[in-house]
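To fix ideas, we close by showing one paired sequence and structure record:
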Amino acid sequence: MDLGLKGKWALVCGASKGLGLGCAQALGREGVHVVIVARGAEALETAAAALRAEVPQGTQVQAIATDITTEEGRAKVFAFRKDYDIVVTNAGGPPPGDFRDWDRAAWVKALDANMLTPIELIKATVDGMAARGFGRIINITSGAVKAPIDILGLSNGARSGLTGFVAGVARQSKLAGSNVTINNMLPGAFDTDRLKGNFETMSKKSGKSIEEVRQARAKAVPALRFGTSEEFGAICAFVCSQHAGYITGQNLLIDGGAYPGTY
């Protein structure tokens, strides 16, 4: 299937590894010029080099090492290019723990990364997308938005705030009527560094080994495995495609069937 994305420009955040990199790879293979952003310069350059080796000839890959959660970081990204056709917002989740231990600073940091930064990126790009008649924004949030995880309270709260914001703005006729869509992708258990970190926390809390925690977590998924960044990226690319213009304001749960509800 031709996704109709060749020649578009995409900004992909948190793209040095994991789900962000998976999205950048899938878009790049479709001939999308990709600007990848992450804080770690070395890991980002490694990812960019690998990506350049697999995208079609003529497809550009630009790596910008910066903290997108800061005004300075966003200014650096938009100094390179003002207009993007696709924006994938993605920030590392805040640390797990007990809500009793989190002070105001911890909450503000979580909100900055997982709610306010995506909103700033949306604000900076959607009107240009609408004027050009095409735009796709994907927010990588978490399956915890649907089924909260007790040790991820900072993430539960911040990402739920973003979800509420998107539910309203995505349905503005100025945007949806101009072929601009905004959707959230909610990953469940994917084989990433983030998941490994959660296993370590759960291991300490339960007294079980990390391997025991890992095996139990995998068995709890009906698919009996963890997701891969490659399959997540493929879904992202489709939702960004010309074929997905009638999908907006949605929370796309990608969790191997783990969420038990009907709705």
About this structure: The two ends are 30 Å apart (CA to CA).
